[in-house]
Amino acid sequence: MWNTGVRALRRTSQYNINQRTMALSTCQIKGTDITWIDIYDPSDEDIETVSSRYSLNSYTLLDSLDPDHLPKYEEHNDTHFLIIRLLHDESQKLPTIQSLSSKIAVFFTDKFIITIHRCAQPMIQSIMDNLVNKGKIKSASGIAIHIVGDALRSFEEPAINFLPISILTNLHCF
């Protein structure tokens, strides 16, 4: 079961005061001691709190907040860290990496998984609803593998649609 604490932050805009929300969700994975923390649009304070509680590497945290960062994998003090990008809906195509794709940072050990992202990620909710809540995944690494797989699949259809028909008709399965 997920617990969601939502805190509204105020930011002044050129028109009026807009509301911005950050969501911190936690989930205990059924039948395990593993906790999944999903952080959406975090503040520096949110990041510091999670960082100190789970002893996350400060440099990887900086990378996780950098909107331009490309995919990567590192391991620090038994904590796996990866950044994966997923393609946005094609209708949102613009000429920058941030507008073409979004980023999810993942920290995990055998005791926890932390996902951090700036914009809503339906993929996270889908993994939670269809796999974690139904007991089909019982490890942090399993969740991370599904996040990576779903992110990579987000590039498949646009890549196939980009290939000329002549290449597609000449592909042979081995």
TrEMBL record:
Coiled coil: none
Database matches in InterPro entries: CorA_cytoplasmic_dom (IPR045861), MgTranspt_CorA/ZnTranspt_ZntB (IPR002523)
This protein's GO CC annotations: membrane
A molecular function (GO) term: metal ion transmembrane transporter activity
Database matches in Pfam families: CorA
Protein name (record): Magnesium and cobalt transport protein CorA
Gene source species: Flavobacterium johnsoniae (strain ATCC 17061 / DSM 2064 / JCM 8514 / BCRC 14874 / CCUG 350202 / NBRC 14942 / NCIMB 11054 / UW101) (Cytophaga johnsonae)
